[in-house]
Every structure is written in C-alpha cells, then in structure tokens.
Design brief:
homodimer, alpha/beta, five-stranded mixed β-sheet, 6 helices, 7 strands
Chain lengths: 180, 180
C-alpha cells in the first residue's frame, strides 16, 4: 500500500448503479454462494459473480425468466425437487441433498449458487450437510449458522442435518481446495 | 462427475477431527472472512484457511496467545483501535474503518480475517461500509446482513454505515476481483 504508483478512486469506476443481491445472499465457502430465489432485479448483481452453475432446491419448476437468464449467461441449472418441509407429513429428502452435494465436490462447476425460495430452510439443510460431511464443522457452529438464516429454528431440519450421511465419492483431481 | 476415474471417499481423509470455526464466522467475499475473537480451539479451523492477514477491531491489545499463533503461521496483524459503540458517548471511528478498508482493497493481503470480539457490531460496521463503498450493495441488503449477525439492530451502527464515506484510493494492479 505504500507503493501505490497509479491509483484509482472508487468513484471513477464506470458502474455506480446499486447492486441488489438476492434475499438471504451469502458466500458459503470458496466457489459457493447461497440465497433465496433470484428475481430479475438481482441479475446485474449475480452477473458479477460469473456463475457457472445454479443448484435449485424447490418443489416447482424454476421461473422461465430465470431459466432464460441462466441460459443467456451460460449457467447450467441443476434442479433437485424438494418440497418445503412440513412436519409430520413431508421430510427432507436425503437423496436430493446427496445429489446436490455431488455437484459441489466438483470444482469444475464453480462458482455455484445454491438457492431455494427464501434461502432459509432447504438451502440451510444443504449447507448444514455440507459443513458436517465435507467440512467437518462442529454441530454447534452448524446450528448457529442455520439459525442465522432461518428465522426460528426448525427442529426437524436440525435433526436431519445431524443424522444425514452419504457414501458420496469425489474425484480428487477436481476437488475444491476446502475438501483437500 | 460422470468421468470419475479414481475416486476418494470422505471418510478416507486423514483428518476426521471436528473443526470449530470462531463465533459468528462467515465468508464475506472472495479472500475475506469475518468472525468474533478467535480462541485456541479455533486455530486448527483457521489454519485451513491459510490466512495471510488479520484485521482486529478492538479496544484492547489482542491476546498474546493469538499474537503468538499468528506469528507462528506467518499472519500479519493490523489492529485498529475501536471501542465498543456505546451511544451517546462513543461513536464508530471513521478513520479506523477507512484504514481497515485500505487493507482489504489490496489482494496481496488475502486471505484476510476481520474480527472484533463478538463478530457482530464492529465487524458488522466494517462489512457494511465495504458493501456500500466498494461493492455498491443496496442499503436494504446491507442492513439485512448486518442484522443477521447483530442480535437486535444497533441504529447508531446503521446510521454510521449510511453516512460513511471515504476518499480511499487503491492500486488497480492489486485490486481484488470484486472491486474491478
């Protein structure tokens, strides 16, 4: 910093328009972001992330405006059907979670945005499973993070994260750095 | 994923010990993490991040165990004195925030961990100032993020973020990708 030869001021930057991240947007780890369902107002923000992949955990088809935007930007979409967890009738689907994790252990898919509708419960379960299985976080830290996004903890989700397991395999050649 | 030649199972990995991130740990953006004050129990987790720099916003000296750990791991510490914001007597210090931002616009310092004691208010103000000035986030998104970490919003902090400005300069050669 002491050797700044040519400097630039922030206000010189061509783009001064405000950027609007999607609801509950956050960076999960290198190469991975999480959020709620993106709306067109969020597209300029998301384009700056240069996404390669979107993982959508949702009951219904993704909106066509999102599908078209992803296609225009060369973004591959993985849609894993997962219903909103409504106890005692609907439970989180371990196969959908395992399939989504299979996408994130391959860094050729990075950067990835994983989203559900609100970015709270379903994405919270996916991030929790990832913290536990791939990143070996302690449960206390996993539940804290889950609770930061989910307003009011959903006990069934937390139970799911705790018992979730999978014999997922990965190719070390394409493993993300946080898995090595 | 269809072409996995040699696979590895997660459970084969040598390290199976649980990792404990510091209080309120999160990734802010590429190259930057935030948290509360790290304790020795968090050191194995932090060592995986290969940190180059720590920014500490705090009133008192950093604990010697942290200073020694940072030194052993070749981590440079920037300590910007900032008191806990206690209205109406103590206000956030715009000079400390500007000095901290000056560290994060130089990617040679990456990866950076920015921490205060609880990782809520002071670090929340720094992240908010960064979102506003460097990343052009909308206020609604900035305040949402601030509120996720700070239990109960601190109006004075939010006011500070809104009015904060700085004629910070940066060297484009070392600017992080999210600033370009």
């Amino acid at each position: 910093m002491s050797s700044i030869s040519s400097t630039a001021n922030f206000f010189d930057r061509p783009e001064t328009k405000l950027l609007v991240p999607p609801l509950n947007f956050a960076m999960v780890t290198s190469g991975i972001y999480r959020s709620g369902h993106p709306l067109p107002i969020n597209f300029p923000f998301l384009e700056k992330l240069k996404l390669k992949t979107i993982i959508y955990l949702g009951e219904h088809d993704l909106r066509s405006v999102n599908v078209e935007w992803a296609s225009r930007n060369g973004i591959k979409i993985f849609h894993f059907r997962m219903e909103n967890c409504k106890l005692p009738f609907v439970e989180n689907d371990p196969e959908a979670i395992a399939a989504a994790l299979q996408v994130v252990v391959d860094s050729r898919n990075f950067p990835v945005l994983m989203h559900s509708n609100k970015g709270k419960h379903r994405v919270g379960v996916l991030v929790g499973a990832m913290r536990k299985l791939l990143q070996k976080w302690s449960f206390a830290s996993i539940f804290d993070e889950y609770g930061q996004f989910a307003a009011g903890k959903e006990d069934s989700d937390i139970e799911f994260i705790e018992i979730f397991n999978s014999d997922l395999q990965y190719d070390p050649k394409y493993a993300p750095p946080w898995l090595r």
